[in-house]
Specification:
Blueprint lengths: L2 H9 L9 H14 L3 E3 L9 E7 L2 E7 L12 H14 L7
Antiparallel strand pairs: 1-2, 2-3
């Protein structure tokens, strides 16, 4: 992901709506990596786009992310959130392990 694109979206957030779904996923990946998350191999099935891992003084944590870029007048449906919650429960994400 180019530094120029990150700057452009930072200055004009509405540009995110011009990105392809793949570009949007790549932007999300880059932003999470810059926050110290390790991105594990991506998957396109099972209701998740990214696995994130991060270790800190509290332990090691695994998160899942479903990237959605809907139009401003079309909010993410609660069904998407419920489905992601179900995947999180099934995969036991955010479990603490030392």
């Amino acid at each position: 992901m180019g530094e120029a694109l990150l700057r452009a979206v930072g200055q004009e957030p509405d540009l995110v709506h011009a990105l392809t779904p793949r570009e949007f996923d790549e932007l999300a990946t880059e932003l999470f990596q810059r926050q110290g998350y390790t991105i594990t191999p991506q998957t396109r099935d099972g209701g998740k786009d990214l696995y994130l891992a991060k270790a800190d003084s509290f332990g090691s944590f695994l998160y899942i992310v479903e990237c959605k870029r809907y139009a401003p007048d079309n909010p993410v449906d609660v069904g998407v959130v419920r489905a992601l919650y179900g995947v999180a429960q099934h995969e036991r994400v955010t479990e603490r392990s030392r």
